[in-house]
């Protein structure tokens, strides 16, 4: 297989889905452009991973035997120029770009009665505007004619309410709609577009009490793992995934939110 290049957003903590994606893609022979904003995680109650990015890069280099298999560039996606700059960096560094996986997300507590206009805007800017601008920049840079892959991430908002995260739910509903809108526009250029809803995934953000309570809503009694989502995305981005486009895929391990 000709060497392929993937840009993955949302890379910060080693326990996250984006890090699992990087491991999968590196093992499959991709060269990687990684990006994220570690300061965002550091400001959250669950905390960041100070050694996350250096540790992940070292791990990928050791596993592949290639010190240059992955490059990292921090980016604040509230900047309107950041998406195009990231795509440009990937192409300039690796010579091409075949895959874009938009794993990034902005999410804070936004319940009814305590909504803040600026906070709503920030959700829409990071989760919707930046994703749309990334897609546009990727489509403009992709010239292979086939094999292009754009994978977005959702959280299954259409499947049930998220009363404490109204701005996040609205923004991710927009991401799901972008999947439908972009697919017919990009498939003639050789790019498939899909969206993955991984369901509740144990990335270290939940308290022990939440882990236990939500775990009871899974038939197997346990949350999804980051690599569960990574395996699906790897397949979508492979040759075997060429016939799947315009889909929002709920890969939730039987999660029953209505129990």
UniProtKB/TrEMBL annotation:
Keywords noted in UniProt: Oxidoreductase
InterPro entries xref list: NAD(P)-bd_dom_sf, Sc_DH/Rdtase_CS, SDR_fam
Gene3D superfamilies: NAD(P)-binding Rossmann-like Domain
Family: Belongs to the short-chain dehydrogenases/reductases (SDR) family.
Protein name per UniProt: 3-ketoacyl-ACP reductase
Species in which this protein is naturally found: Plantactinospora mayteni
């Amino acid at each position: 297989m000709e060497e392929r290049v993937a840009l993955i957003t949302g890379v910060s903590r080693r326990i996250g889905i984006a890090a699992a994606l990087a491991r999968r893609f590196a093992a499959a022979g991709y060269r990687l452009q990684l990006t994220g904003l570690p300061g965002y995680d550091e400001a959250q109650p669950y905390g960041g991973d100070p050694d996350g990015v250096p540790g992940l890069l070292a791990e990928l280099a050791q596993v592949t035997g290639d010190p240059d298999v992955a490059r990292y560039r921090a980016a604040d996606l509230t900047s309107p120029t950041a998406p195009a700059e990231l795509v440009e960096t990937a192409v300039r560094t690796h010579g091409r770009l075949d895959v874009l996986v938009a794993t990034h997300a902005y999410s804070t507590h936004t319940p009814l009665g305590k909504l803040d206009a600026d906070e709503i805007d920030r959700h829409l800017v990071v989760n919707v505007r930046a994703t749309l601008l990334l897609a546009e920049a990727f489509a403009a840079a992709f010239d292979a004619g086939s094999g292009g892959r754009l994978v977005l991430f959702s959280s299954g908002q259409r499947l049930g309410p998220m009363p404490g995260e109204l701005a996040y739910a609205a923004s991710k509903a927009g991401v799901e709609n972008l999947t439908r809108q972009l697919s017919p526009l990009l498939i003639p250029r050789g790019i498939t577009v899909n969206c993955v809803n991984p369901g509740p995934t144990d990335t270290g953000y939940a308290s022990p009490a939440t882990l236990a309570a939500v775990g009871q809503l899974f038939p197997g009694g346990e949350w999804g793992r980051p690599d569960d989502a990574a395996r699906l995305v790897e397949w979508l981005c492979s040759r075997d995934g060429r016939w799947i486009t315009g889909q929002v895929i709920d890969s939730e391990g039987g999660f029953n939110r209505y129990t």
